[in-house]
Amino acid sequence: MLVSVKGLHKSFGDLDVLKGIDLSIEKGSVVAIIGPSGSGKTTMLRCLNALEMPNKGTIQFQDEFNINFDAAPSKRDILTLRRKSGMVFQSYNLFPHKTALENVMEGPVIVQRKAKEKTKALAESLLKKVGLAEKMDLYPHQLSGGQQQRVGIARALAIEPELMLFDEPTSALDPEIVGEVLRVIRDLAKEGWTMAIVTHELKFAEEVADHVIFIDGGHIVEQGTPEEILKNPKEARTKQFLDRILNPS
Amino acid sequence: MFLNNFILAASDPVVDWDLFQSSLWPMIQGGIQGTIPLTLISFTFGLLIALLTALARLSNSKILAGLARVYVSAIRGTPLLVQLFIIFYGLPNIGVVIDPFPSACIAFSLNVGAYASEIIRASILSVPKGQWEAGYAIGMTHRQALLRIILPQATRVSIPPLSNTFISLVKDTSLASLILVTELFRKSQEIAARTYEFLQLYITAALLYWIVCFILSLIQGRIEKRLDRYVAK
Ligand SMILES: Nc1ncnc2c1ncn2[C@@H]1O[C@H](COP(=O)(O)OP(=O)(O)OP(=O)(O)O)[C@@H](O)[C@H]1O
Ligand SMILES: [Mg+2]
């Protein structure tokens, strides 16, 4: 297992949002996280890189790194955890004062202290990979939503994370440009990146995910292969959720 | 009688051009020796104090935040002239004697520090939370995210109000004449005391301030335009 999460709890004030999440992510696998609105999907994903600080639980990366949230973890451990994962945000969150290329270079140059020249080549190849070879010197506001999100993906890839986290990467996009972002994610899956993706795109989940997790009310209700969860769910709540998505109204 | 006096006064030449020419250079000199260095030094130190104060107010430390609050409140709640007098005329009573120019620098720096800290604080808070998170997500420390991501964006937001602070400062330095600093307005006072041409000399001084502030506002516009290049129109 690349990542093993045990007993993760998170509450906001009186509101218990995650009530004990156990989860394993195999190296090279794609995990899709689905569930109703407000069930805690975003919170869980953000706990995985400590953008949200869990109240309890542990996250283990292979055998090499373990962080325990029962007591406040050290700053150093939090940084280590964050540097193991790359995050792609629903609203992109690109740095508006930097060009696409500079956005991608920021992590390697500032955080990993890599040489600028080498990083520039890396950043250019990443932007090419996501189909933005022509747009490298543009600022975020000069790019479409789909292009911005692809820069966001390249920026996350640039720190060579062990795990990529996506929080509904296409839900802020117009329907006709969702495809260009999904295509990039699909390519990453083929390249063997380990990814956890919160998504409402069930067809996409079915196609790229190796493992699907259904969350409701702060619990993992059911998990398994896409076939098991999306086609033959066992739990009533999963069935209900899928039914509502597939037959809206 | 009254009418007579009025006509007498009005019959004086409206502008004494010789005096204008001979008074202009001393006043400009006063500006170069006093007003400009006083403004530049006070603004530089003031901004430094302001940044530290803003960071203190935003920090997790209650003590630091509290101290910063008291400082800002005290400076904003008292007249600048009174602050100048305390430093220059007051402190000697406890054995602290400071020359006019450094006294003025201290007072103006503290003043800019307090007002600008509010501007900087607000502009830091105006940067969306997602920007911090994007920095953290690529592994940045708090400090790296602040310096690389947040402050550059906050700077853009704070340039217009900080320019106003700067322009106000240029004008406020005239108060330093009251603690014997040789600067533009004090020069005009000296000449006026000799010639009794108060109106003409003070208007000349006003014009000089106006010209400087006008040029500054032009520069302000240019800087804002340059910083605009990465912002959606
Ligand atoms: N910072 C916060 N402070 C307080 N409550 C929060 C915070 N973030 C999330 N919550 C609450 O936690 C619950 C779970 O939120 P979360 O964003 O994880 O849901 P989600 O499954 O991602 O939903 P969606 O599909 O709508 O994105 C919600 O009730 C939400 O209101
Ligand atoms: Mg969400």
Automatic annotation (TrEMBL), chain A:
Any Pfam family hit: ABC_tran
Keywords (A to Z) from UniProt: ATP-binding, Cell membrane, Membrane, Nucleotide-binding, Transport
Molecular-function annotations in GO: ABC-type amino acid transporter activity; ATP binding; ATP hydrolysis activity
Location in or out of the cell: Cell membrane
Membrane topology: Peripheral membrane protein
Major site of localization recorded for this protein: membrane
GO CC list: plasma membrane
Annotated ABC transporter domain residues: 3-242
Annotated SUPFAM superfamilies: P-loop containing nucleoside triphosphate hydrolases (SSF52540)
Keyword match Transport: yes
CDD domains in alphabetical order: ABC_HisP_GlnQ
Name of the protein this chain belongs to: Polar amino acid ABC transporter ATP-binding protein
Protein's organism: Jeotgalibacillus proteolyticus
TrEMBL record, chain B:
Protein's UniProt keywords contain Repeat: no
Principal location listed in the UniProt entry: membrane
A GO-annotated cellular component: ATP-binding cassette (ABC) transporter complex
Recorded topology in the membrane: Multi-pass membrane protein
Entries under CDD domains matching the protein: TM_PBP2
Alphabetized SUPFAM superfamilies for the sequence: MetI-like
Compartments where located: Cell membrane
InterPro entries: AA_ABC_transptr_permease_3TM, ArtM/GltK/GlnP/TcyL/YhdX-like, MetI-like, MetI-like_sf
Origin superkingdom: Bacteria
One Gene Ontology molecular-function label: L-cystine transmembrane transporter activity
Transmembrane segments: 36-58, 70-91, 199-219
Keyword terms, alphabetized: Amino-acid transport, Cell membrane, Membrane, Transmembrane, Transmembrane helix, Transport
Coiled coil start-end: none
PROSITE patterns registered for this protein in UniProt: ABC_TM1
Start and end residues of each ABC transmembrane type-1 domain: 32-220
NCBIfam families per UniProt: HEQRo_perm_3TM (TIGR01726)
Similarity comment text for this entry: Belongs to the binding-protein-dependent transport system permease family.
UniProt-recorded name of the protein: Cysteine ABC transporter permease
Organism name: Jeotgalibacillus proteolyticus
